[in-house]
Specification:
Layout (H helix, E strand, L loop, with lengths): L1 E5 L3 H12 L3 E5 L2 H10 L1 E4 L5 E3 L2 E3 L12 E4 L6 H8 L8 E4 L6 H9 L6 E10 L5 E13 L5 H16 L2 E4 L3 H22 L3 H5 L4 H18 L6 H11 L9 H7 L6 H15 L4 H19 L2
Parallel strand pairs: 1-2, 1-6, 2-5, 3-9, 6-7, 9-10
Antiparallel strand pairs: 3-4, 8-9
Helix pairs in contact: 1-5, 6-8, 6-9, 6-12, 8-9, 8-11, 11-12
Bound molecules: NADPH dihydro-nicotinamide-adenine-dinucleotide phosphate and ketopantoate.
């Protein structure tokens, strides 16, 4: 199976790197600065699950057509880079290629479906804390590192998902090929939106937030808004997943934060519109009360406005 990975950052670098390390046929589609880092140092992974440094095959967008066809394209960019990423992978989409996005959120699916056809877009997401370090190394923070994926349409997608599962199994990557990817995506979206909105709003970890007088109730109320949107969309979060989400977002002393807080605190662009803004838009469309989401989204827009004004 030939795999193209768009993005050799935190998630693409980690999961694509583990596949390549295990001998899978992996090519990274990168931009020139990342290509120069990979040429100089190889792909460097620093992880509690095992450090690794090795050369990887990589290609620039202008040359990717010559490398096609691929069986699977793993899309691992930030949501604000979606337009350029979609253009970059388009020449690599052969007639049988399927694309597996692992971005957070849901709003990329209609864009991908429209451009490439829904029959070619598998559903996917990942659980990990990872980022690109100052020298281009992929830093895996903590131990969770799993990918969940599944067919959005019966037929060919199922066969391809089975092949993807086999590749992750060979690479020793924790993975789930789920029969209900829409449910899994909504479960993650409602949890992640709560985590991102709250940890960014208060610039603090879960433990610090719930250590305040009203922090625990704030988390519960915010999760109720987000999971209410999931229910309204026809994908209520199953009881066990709800308990896990509430446990993780209200655990005293927990150092947990969202990757969005890391981006915000380092002054970078954030996926606020794709995650918190999109959840609020869906809440309003469904008539779900969402006053806390509105505050969190106002805060993220103010951050983005100040960032732009500062140049
Ligand atoms: N990091 C985390 O812990 C987690 C992240 N996620 C989600 O995963 C997604 C990816 O996040 P993450 O891996 O952290 O992001 P990163 O910013 O670490 O990596 C994204 C990579 O995509 C590359 N890229 C963007 N556009 C293009 C393009 N047109 N052509 C080639 N390469 C491109 C960037 O390249 P360049 O280096 O040139 O800018 C960058 O290296 C997000 O939706 C995020 O929310 C989900 C779970 C956890
Ligand atoms: C919820 C978490 C931490 C797990 O992957 C995440 O997706 C993020 O921080 O973006």
């Amino acid at each position: 199976m030939r795999i193209l990975v768009l993005g050799a950052g935190g998630t693409g670098g980690y999961f694509g790197g583990r596949l390549a390390q295990a001998g899978a046929d992996v090519t990274f589609l990168v931009r020139p600065a990342r290509a120069a880092e990979l040429d100089a140092d190889g792909l460097v992974i620093r992880s509690p699950l095992g450090d690794a440094t090795f050369p990887v095959r990589h290609v620039l967008a202008e040359n990717v057509a010559g490398e096609a066809p691929f069986d699977v394209i793993l899309l691992a960019c930030k949501a604000y880079d979606l337009d350029t990423a979609i253009d970059a992978v388009a020449p690599a989409m052969g007639p049988a290629t399927m694309l597996l996005p692992i971005l957070n959120g849901l709003a990329h699916y209609p864009l991908l479906d429209q451009r490439f056809g829904a029959e070619r877009i598998i559903g996917g997401m990942c659980i990990i804390s990872a980022m690109k370090g100052p020298k281009g190394e992929v830093l895996h923070l903590g131990t969770p590192a799993s990918v969940t994926f599944g067919e959005r349409q019966a037929g060919e997608q199922r066969v391809r998902c089975e092949a993807i599962a086999a590749a992750f199994a060979k690479a020793g990557v924790e993975h789930t090929h789920t029969p209900d990817i829409d449910g899994a995506l909504w479960t993650k979206f409602s949890f992640l939106t709560t985590l991102a909105a709250a940890t960014c709003l208060f610039r603090a970890s879960v433990g610090t937030i719930v250590g305040t007088d009203d922090g625990r109730q704030f988390m519960l109320d915010l999760y109720a808004e987000c999971s209410g949107v999931a229910t309204a969309a026809g994908h209520p979060v199953p009881a066990q997943a709800r308990e896990m989400a509430i446990g993780a977002t209200t655990q005293p002393g927990s150092p947990l934060t969202a990757s969005m807080l890391r981006d915000l605190e380092s002054g970078q662009r954030i996926e606020g519109a794709h995650i918190v803004g999109d959840m609020l838009r869906r809440a309003r469309a469904a008539g779900v009360p969402a006053s806390l989401l509105a505050i969190a989204w106002t805060h993220l827009q103010a951050y983005e406005a100040r960032r732009l004004a500062a140049g």
